Each structure stands twice: as C-alpha cells, then as structure tokens.
Amino acid sequence: MVEGLEKSAYTYPNEHLVAMISPGIGIGVITPVGEIVEVDAVGVQDGSNTSFTIPATFTYVEVYYNGIKLKEGIGESYVVTGNVITLDFAPESSDDISYVIQG
Fold this sequence. Notes:
This protein is an all-beta fold. The protein has one domain.
C-alpha cells in the first residue's frame, strides 16, 4: 500500500472499494485504469467561485457537499464540461466539497 493512502468503506455503483487520496499526496499515485479515487480540485472556495478543475482524466464523477451527494446535470447541483465542474452555488471556505472520480 502506498504511504498516505487510506482504504474507505464507501462503495459506488460498480461496487469497487474506494482508495482515498489524503490531502497533500496529489494525484500522481493514481495508476490503475478505472480505479475510483477522491481528488482535490483546483479552485478557490471563497463564496463566489463556482468552477473547479479536476487535474486528472476521468470517465465518472460524483460530487459531495458536506457529505451529501449532489445531482449532476443542467438544472441540478453541478455540470461537467471536460475536466471542469461548475456548481450551481459558490461554496464557502468552511464547506467540505469532495470530488470522487473514476479514470
């Protein structure tokens, strides 16, 4: 196991065990294709910014706001364009936003 990685009990639609990446580790340790991981997005949580860039290629994404899974799509909580996630609200710095991707 890579130092800094933690296994999580979360399961997702394909029922894989999620490998969580701890803050500061970065996404450089993601190697297996199709692995589900939590990543840090690039963007300032300041109460006015709504766009966040995922610094990785992915085929599937889930976004969580303070532990609650958000719905994707136009008219929902967020939309995805390429590797940019645009929220329909501007999270504050104290909010916990999690981005779970599958490569």
